[in-house]
Design brief:
The protein has 408 residues and is α/β, with parallel strands linked by helices. The chain is built from 11 helices and 12 strands. Helices cover 39% and strands 13% of the residues. The protein binds pyridoxal-5'-phosphate.
Length: 408
């Protein structure tokens, strides 16, 4: 066996310039978050809780103002009544689409958990079952298919365009904001009205711009990922145009009650503290991704993105081309986790996913992938999707352990 520790030390030296850029972004967002806390006079009274209907929850209102401010939206819905990101995406789609409408994805097939929501896979409660059509345009070599997009927009009325930034369980690259900006410009030249919705999961605080600054109408993400900072116990957000947030709120709660209801049951402090920590936690996750990319590339594996490539999200792909290696690596990450380190993850049939999935998630919050975590569907080319880490040090320890397992 080669000298594992030397490999880590050498790789760490090579990535320092990349780390500096990550620190710069973390500083940028720390200022943004802190400014928003100051603007809305966050105080201890906002940590108080409501029960029942949740009327007049001043903490909830401040949280939503702060999320809107930081992400450049007119309004926000930030709720623990959203189970997670998938639920918020579902609520957004059901809120904005009506029977006879067509939704168009221009980043290929959306995230696996949306298959049954849209009706790509049969479900009696899908959008399709309500008479909502779905069309999809695949990316071509990781670029938007401008020809097809124009063709579709000229040929028919599209109600909503979905753009998924992070790669999900695909082999494509995640989509950086310069590409989003360019495609939105092209869309707007043809259609000023179509709602542009962004699945922003895993992408928050990675680049210095919010999709809402470059013309998106509404963005959606999970609080057990980036913006929860590892502290929010669950939930998700929808941020964007005021009238769209109102529709989403009426869909989540009760038409006519919308944002006015929703008890917070004691979690306001955790949501605020999670957002406060998020710039630093996202930076740590990015550093772990960069280090993993460098080390595994040095070990001869194909990685995406490469350590010094521009990143759109916190996810690091490692292509193992072997089910056994993917499983071993994932088990190594689990062995270095804080919780359930003694458990051995095995491939299983996860609800909402088509292939068997292996998942290392020894996290404080169930399923949290802003904590160090690793997963992948058991299908060629057997890619591990590594993400998260609340601190750089714990992430580094996890990589060391995973490599050890890999080489056993
Ligand atoms: C994680 C993820 C989701 C779903 O989020 P959950 O919080 O796990 O439900 C949706 N889209 C993308 C691109 C994701 O990465």
């Amino acid at each position: 066996m080669h000298d594992g520790m030397n490999l880590i030390v050498d790789s760490e030296k090579e990535v320092q310039a990349v780390f500096q850029k990550i620190d710069d972004t973390a500083f940028f967002y720390s200022k943004k978050v802190l400014d928003a806390f100051h603007k809305y006079h966050v105080s201890e009274s906002h940590f108080m809780s409501t029960t029942g209907y949740g009327y007049n929850d001043i903490g909830r209102e401040v949280i939503e103002s702060i999320f809107a401010e930081v992400l450049h939206g007119e309004d926000a819905l930030v709720r623990s009544q959203f189970i997670s990101g998938s639920h918020a995406l579902t609520v957004t789609l059901f809120a904005l689409l009506r029977p006879g409408d067509t939704m168009l994805s221009i980043t290929g097939k959306p995230y696996d958990t949306l298959d049954e929501v849209i009706g790509i896979r049969e479900n009696k409660s899908s959008l399709k079952s309500f008479g909502i059509q779905y069309e999809q345009i695949d990316l071509i070599q990781d670029e938007f298919d401008y020809e097809k997009i124009k063709e579709v927009l000229f040929s028919k009325k599209i109600k909503l365009i979905e753009i998924q930034r992070s790669k999900g369980y695909s082999t494509r690259k995640s989509i950086t904001l310069d590409k989003i900006e360019k495609v939105i410009k092209a869309i707007r030249e043809i259609d000023k009205e179509v709602i542009i919705m962004i699945d922003n999961c895993y992408c928050e605080f990675v680049e210095k711009t919010s999709p809402l600054e470059v013309g998106a109408d509404v963005i959606v993400g999970s609080l057990i990922k980036n913006l929860g900072g590892g502290i929010a116990p669950n939930g998700a957000y929808i941020v964007g145009k005021k009238e769209l947030i109102e529709l989403a709120a009426d869909r989540l709660t009760v038409p006519g009650e919308g944002k006015e209801v929703g008890p917070t049951l004691g979690i306001n402090k955790q949501i605020l503290q999670g957002l406060y920590m998020a710039p630093s936690v996202v930076a740590n996750s990015l550093k772990v991704a960069v280090l993993a990319s460098k080390i595994l590339e040095n070990l001869g594996y194909k990685v995406e993105p490469k350590y010094n490539e521009k990143r759109a999200d916190i996810v690091q792909n490692i292509e193992f081309n072997s089910a056994e290696k993917l499983i071993k690596f994932t088990q190594g990450i689990q062995a270095a986790s804080a919780v359930d380190s003694f458990a051995t993850p095995l491939p299983w049939d996860m609800p909402g996913y088509e292939d068997q999935v292996i998942m290392a998630s020894g996290s404080f919050t169930q399923g949290s992938s802003i904590e160090i975590s690793c997963d992948g569907p058991i299908r060629p080319p057997y890619i591990a999707y590594l993400q998260g880490s609340l601190t750089y040090e714990y992430g580094k320890l996890a990589i060391i352990e995973a490599i050890k397992k890999l080489e056993e």
